[in-house]
Amino acid sequence: MTVREMTPYELLGGEGVVRWLTDRFYDIMDSDPEVRTLRDMHPADLSGSRQKLFMFLSGWLGGPQLFVEAFGHPRLRMRHMPFAVDSAARDQWMRCMRQAVGELIVEDWLKDKLVESFYNTADFMRNREG
Question: Per the record's keyword annotation, is Heme included, yes or no (predicted)?
């Protein structure tokens, strides 16, 4: 199988790496004062959020559809409607994910592809002006 035929899930290294990426994302979010607004949108105990994002990312990256199997279609915008997701929230989310991806991936082409895809999805989540 060539690199072009591999899913991002496979390119990253599978389940363990997606779990690491998810955990690192939440570790950054939980400790970076620059993303306090984003952190405050989450429960004090992040274990459920970590698990759901891991499950979602597994399928989103081309691996097992864990989230769909457990909860059905992600309906991301609908699930995020209770939260005020504006450009600032998007940018805070991206700050955490960009850092996690940057710490994990050394290949610039893969890093750029993932960051672009994450940005497009995060931007789609916006439900408030600004």
Answer: yes
